[in-house]
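User: Sequence in, structure out. Go.
Assistant: Echoing your sequence, followed by the structure tokens.
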Amino acid sequence: MSGAAARGGPELPGVAAALEAGRAAGVAPALSAVVLRDGALVHESVHGELPAPARRPLEPGDLFDVASLTKVMATTTLAAQLAGEGRIGLDLPAASLLPGFEAAGKGAVTVRHLLAHSSGLPRWRPWFERAAADRVAGAAFLPPARRPPPPALAGAFTRGRGLVREALFAEPLEAPPGARAEYCDPGFIALGLLLEEAAGEGLAALSSRRVFAPLGLRSTFYSDGLEPAAAAALARGRSFVPTGASAPRGEEVVQGEVNDDNAWAMGGVAGHAGLFSTAREVAALGQAWLDAVHGRRSIVPAAAAAELTRRDATPGSERALGWDTPSRGPSSLGSRLGRGGRGAIGHLGFTGTSLWIDLDAALVCVLLTNHVHPSGRSDRPVIRGLRQRFHDAVAGALGIG
């Protein structure tokens, strides 16, 4: 199945061909890409197909599980807003905003540490296992044929969310805060809970009200298992790209539900994962950050954007606050973008997604795929290679580098 340029949208020379070659090589069965330059759409293409409920070509409006792009699209953006308003302080102890987090020696962890992945918390923990083994929360992890319908799972998700919170609070540090930079899902789970406490509102409603609605993003949302009627209304009439099989959920190939099992245990809403979106809407979020960095009007406060996009001082870190920056070795951004004085910020998602912003070239590049379909596993060198070829093709078409 050949790629299509967004049903008549613009297409950069060589970019669609690079993505179609990746699809043909089996990197992912579905891919969607958008490139903005100076806020204008210069490339949009979709490649591949949706296998279910009826096989058809992929369309630009089909929704991807963007996985860890949630960290920048929702959590980091909200942190920038609340910091800009003085409602949270980057150098305040996280426990001052999230009481109970100080347990197990975490009292010195700050909001900045959480954003910078330098808290000393572990990279990952399978806290969903506590939920799956629980008499109440375990209902959400039954095989699909035995699982209660979504309206009956709100209690299971409420219990699961509580179990994950308890596990987070009880988790000790592996290193002193600020001593190392280690990519950390638990830190962003904590940050999501902290933002809810600071704002007095759940993360799904908060991000919708403060981020997505002001940007006009009608296809970007959490599917909140604690609000099943609202989740069903958001999903109605939409099509979701499948991700991978979940062993804890009976080897179910997930489609229309969050792929991440810790986020699923929490009802699909978490600081580290849970958002669904389209390439065009991910790009709009990226453009909001680019506008803020360049001092233009944005939902992101300019001063907070400047602070959060600066590379962190943690020894060995290649990250900003919430955002990644191009690695010193081979980067998913490729060999030509992000080489100017301001560099680039971006983020990757486990399902096969990426968002990169070249701050000098005023370029926003989004690539959404379902690389983990159907196995549920990621081949990092393979998906990194596709990302590099995509970004290098964009640079070549625009004469950059």
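User: And one key feature?
Assistant: DSSP finds twelve helices and eleven strands in the chain.
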